[in-house]
Amino acid sequence: MKGTAVMDETPMEARGSPLDFDVLVEGEQAALLRLARRLVWDGEEARDLVQSALADAYEKRHTLRDAKAGPGWLRRILVSRAMGHLRRRRVWNVVREVLDLGPAPQPSPEERFAGAERWRAFGRALRTLPAQQATAFSLRYLEGLDLDAIADAMNIGRGTVRIHLYRALRKLKAADALQLQGDTP
Q1: Rounded-to-integer distance, Cα 92 and Cα 39, Å
Q2: Helix axes 147-154, 70-89, angle to 10 degrees
Q3: Which of 36, 39, 65, 83 has CA atoms 20 to 30 A from the CA of 101?
Q4: Can you name the residues that pair with 64 across neighbouring β-strands?
Q5: In whole angstroms, what is the distance from residue 177 CA to residue 120 CA?
Q6: Coil, helix or strand at residue 64
Q7: What is the pLDDT of residues 138-185, one digit of tens each?
Q8: Alpha carbon 74 to chain centroid distance?
Q9: Ranges of the chain whose pLDDT falls below 50
Q10: How far is the C-alpha of 36 from the C-alpha of 45, rounded, in Å?
């Protein structure tokens, strides 16, 4: 199937290049947590999703054929878990944490209030999107992944990603919660 990791039931040790699962997790854990936070908009739920995705990955680690595909493989497992979680929950929690963008100049109280209001409106509008549209949007515009990486992570075709992004952007612009200019898929 196009867009999926190449899986093989032969143990990695029997093929040569062994997967050092601990090194893979150590290198990707922060990125996975950041991605999960942007997908579910809740820190505790994000940590739970990352833990369960890593547990799944650990159980299936012997099936990964190429150790270099490990980061994408972990991201795909996490996105799959998050999609299931969002489908079951159906409505996202109110945004509790803001993107961790590092230190910024201190805005005036009026600017802070206006920014917080815009962010809350954005969060409300994003929570109204179907799970696949919200996931595609988060992966593209909040995580900065390209279309192929999103297709791989969501296990869907590149054209389907473009459709989800187009529909998400159209709905968010209609809700006037997001003022994107230029780069559309």
Answers
A1: 10
A2: 60
A3: 83
A4: 7
A5: 9
A6: strand
A7: 888 877 788 998 998 889 999 999 999 999 888 888 876 444 444 444
A8: 11
A9: 1-17, 90-104, 177-185
A10: 8
